[in-house]
Amino acid sequence: MGGDEGGAGAFGVDTGEPVAAREAAVLPAARGLQSVGWLLVARSLLRGVTVLLRPELVDGEVSVRAGREDEVEALLAILAEPSVTAWWGTPPAVENLRRDLLADRDPVTDADPVLLVVTVAGVVAGGIQYDEDNDPQYRQASIDVFLGSAFQGRGLGTRAVTLVARFLFEDRGHHRVTIDPAAANAPAIRSYTKVGFRPVGIMREYELGPDGVRRDGLLMDLLRTDLAGGRHIGR
Predict the structure, then answer these.
(1) What confidence score (pLDDT) does residue 51 get?
(2) What CA–CA distance (Å, rounded) separates 53 from 65?
(3) CATH entry, 55-226, from 3.30.230.10, 3.40.50.720, 3.40.1010.20, 3.40.630.30
(4) Is there a contact between 110 and 133 (Cβ–Cβ < 8 Å)?
């Protein structure tokens, strides 16, 4: 609801009190905690909104959502495809992937990256993860994404990244998002540029490639005002 309209209380009960008035009364105390995470929770509770780490985001046939147990093997198979290992390296152990995909997370205190599934017309196409730095002085988020070879070169990664970037801005309260493809990964760089990411600079010998050679990375960033498009349909 809008800032001055009545809204739901912390348990989804409409209090009839303007949201702005309730925020003015409660948020100063939350600010005293010096924690952006707690501010996010306080504001969300006031608006009757659940703070989600694994939302459901939709743009036509492309969706980003929480993964399921029966999708672990499909994701592992995608991570083993040559076009993916070229940039992501050796696939993780199945138990590690299962934990990353399914483990319960605390929306305030958990600092681990959040892994989501990308589907296209209901078919698992890959994964996308985001990470958050909640230090108030440097608060920002980052994104990484992989798609199976059958789903590459079709603009689907651009749409998935746009959905998650919008979620990080609108729902998680970030103002800046980064992404760091290998400098030689021209298709990924083109895709991220379409989202609105801008190159910041080359990070020399940034990562160790599957061939054992250190390669450069490209740091790119995106501000709220840079976001090119996409729709955040629901959660």
Answers:
(1) 58
(2) 10
(3) 3.40.630.30
(4) no
Residue 79 to residue 51: CA distance in whole angstroms? 29
Instruction: Assign 232 to helix, strand or coil.
Output: coil
Dist CA 205 CA 198 (whole Å)? 20
Dihedral of CA atoms 85, 90, 91, 95 in degrees, nearest 10, equals -170
| C-alpha to C-alpha distance for 135 and 141, rounded to whole angstroms | 11
Tokens in use for 136? 């108030």
Q: What percent of the chain has pLDDT over 70?
A: 73
Specify whether the CB–CB gap between 162 and 207 falls below 8 A.
no
Domains of the chain, by residue range, sit at: 1-51, 55-226
Residue given tokens 């990484």 in the structure block:
144
pLDDT tens, residue by residue, 1-15? 333 333 322 222 333
